[in-house]
Design goal:
By secondary structure, the chain is of the alpha+beta class. The protein has one domain. Helix content is 67%, strand content 15%. It has three helices and three strands. Strands 1-2-3 form a three-stranded antiparallel β-sheet. Helix 1 runs antiparallel to helix 2. The chain is elongated, with a radius of gyration of 19 Å. It starts with a strand and ends with a helix.
Amino acid sequence: MGFLIDFPVLNCPFSIGYGAMEQRCCKVRGELAAQFATAARLYAEAVVVLTSSFSSNSHLKYEQLVERAHEVQRRSDLARIAFEEHVGRHRCDEIAFAAKVK
């Protein structure tokens, strides 16, 4: 008999028992959640670089940093949309929730 551990970054419970870890939710959902988390982190880092280097860079360098921040924001938005669309279509959020309730 195993027990449930919740990994909040992936929002995906795992059942631990008999020395093996068994994922109890959609694999694609976990992959999309990880991609979204990475894209969001990269966006946050780009914003930190942009705001911390405002006074120390030329206008051209600042514009490049702004463009970089916009690009990683777009990627983060696309990753979020892919995650939300998958969960909505596949309804794997309900599977994860049901596994937590058991």
